[in-house]
Amino acid sequence: MTISVKICGLTRPEDVDAAVAAGARYVGFVFFAKSPRNVSVAQAAKLAMAVPLGVAKVALVVNADNDRLDQIVAEVPLDMLQLHGSETPDRVAEIKARYGLPVMKAVGIAGPEDLAKLDLYATVADQILVDAKPPKDAELPGGNGLTFDWRLIARRRWLTPWMLAGGLGPSNAAEAVALTGVRQLDVSSGVESAPGLKDAAKIAAFVGAVTQ
What we know:
By secondary structure, the protein is of the alpha/beta class. It has a single domain (4-211), classed as TIM Barrel. 32% of the residues lie in helices and 21% in strands. An eight-stranded parallel β-sheet has the order 7-6-5-4-3-2-1-8. A two-stranded antiparallel ribbon has the order 9-10. The mean pLDDT is 92.
């Protein structure tokens, strides 16, 4: 089974190089001021230009308005938009129509009561990111290094492709795949030496854990 990996929250050229060298299929750039992984549009444009063909470039935004999205899409060569806020299904559809890019919608999961949202967003988004729901007092909607009970989604399937995120790292990536049957993994803090700074060895170990 082929597993695709997304390395999210890249901030430096060497981190992009490490992700590509390890075999990541997606690289993510965060546009959220409160995140230690936040990059400017100019920074992201420069980083994205170094990404080779065949590796998808993803912009992570949180409740971004059209003016902000217009700027990002105009200046950064992207392959996908990742919506990580409280965007409604109608807003997801609106963004898809406006920009003509595939849209991935992040859905936070803490318990069984959250699963219905996955079914809902799977009808409008091109991909679903199944993530751990952040604590109520959390500053960040993702990248908190938290997991959820993967048994909640074990062997579940949606018509829309999906990706698993939340608390993943080199030590538990293979377990996540084995338990859930997921074919795409998203990692950020789990391959860092410090918040916002990726570790090339950890990136290689993460990808290697699920692709060898």
